[in-house]
Amino acid sequence: MIKVCRTRLDAGAPAVVRATAEDLVLAVDDRHITPTGATAIETALNGLADGDPGAGPGGDS
Question: Taking CA atoms, which of 5, 44, 47, 49 is between 20 and 30 Å from 61?
């Protein structure tokens, strides 16, 4: 599962990724992404990982 979380990072690091056998966590500086943006990215990435073409009209994501 892919998770996107918002956190305060150092000024030189807008995002950090940590991967384990079970999860991939993308930590994004909260000054650069909204809660809605984090949720949207998480949903889109998990949809790609599952092979889901998307639920948009006509199969568009």
Answer: 5
Return the residue matching tokens 């949207």: 40
Structure tokens at 40: 């949207």
Q: Is the pLDDT of residue 56 over 60?
A: no
Q: Measured between alpha carbons, how far is 33 from 21 in angstroms, rounded to an integer?
A: 26
List b or e across 21-60, with b for residues whose CB sees 16 or more CB atoms inside 10 angstroms. eeeeebbbbeeebeeeebeeebbebeeeeeeeeeeeeeee
Span between the terminal Cα atoms of the chain, in Å: 19
